[in-house]
Design a protein that fits this description.
The protein is mainly alpha-helical and 197 residues long. Helix content is 77%, strand content 0%.
Length: 197
């Protein structure tokens, strides 16, 4: 990688960091390129040299946040050899991370019409999450079958509900409560799918 490439990558990362901070402060609908430039400490023209529009920049932020999220879950999961433990821990970490994500939570509070279509089934983001979970559950040498796809879908649907819900019976800010939900509701489906007891 050349110095110019590193500089370009560093500037692009700065822009995305600034866009994330600005969106957390202003929301996405009212967000302007000036807001982003100010948060990134860069000139507006620099933003346009990397991203053609605010929409393209917001899409890049969402893509990077998703990649970071999945990489974090993969790092958590890699610490557990036992499939049950891996599923429970990644589920708990994933739900808590989404419930604490600044931009997501702001949008759910102030711009639900903009974010909810991306949180519902039919959304490419949820499809990516379902496929990712199914691959984590499957033997690395094979594609996940229908049974594991079903477990992955159940996991995503349950996580989606917990992320969008206000706490009631369960304290959803408590990782142990989320682990307990995964053990009681997802592990039986996993055991049925894999023939484990």
């Amino acid at each position: 990688m050349t110095i110019a490439d590193e500089t370009h990558e560093s500037t692009a990362s700065r822009i995305l960091d600034g866009a994330l901070r600005a969106a957390e402060n202003h929301g996405v609908r009212k967000l302007t390129m000036d807001d982003i430039a100010g948060a990134a400490g860069l000139a507006r023209i620099t933003l346009y040299s990397h991203y053609r529009s605010k929409d393209a920049l917001v899409a890049a932020v969402v893509s990077r946040e998703q990649q970071r999220f999945l990489a974090h879950l993969e790092a958590v999961g890699s610490q557990y050899a036992d499939l049950d433990d891996r599923l429970v821990e990644t589920f708990a970490v994933g739900v808590r991370a989404m419930r604490q994500h600044g931009l997501l939570q702001r949008m759910l509070r102030t711009e639900p019409a903009a974010i909810l279509p991306h949180m519902m089934f039919g959304s490419p983001l949820l499809d990516i999450a379902r496929q990712w979970i199914a691959r984590q559950l499957a033997d690395p040498a094979s594609e996940p079958g229908l049974a594991l796809q079903s477990v992955a879908e159940l996991s995503v649907r349950l996580a989606q509900s917990l992320i969008l819900s206000e706490p009631s019976v369960h304290n959803l800010d408590d990782a142990d409560e989320i682990r307990d939900i995964a053990r009681r509701w997802i592990l039986p489906a996993l055991h049925a799918a894999t023939g484990a007891r």
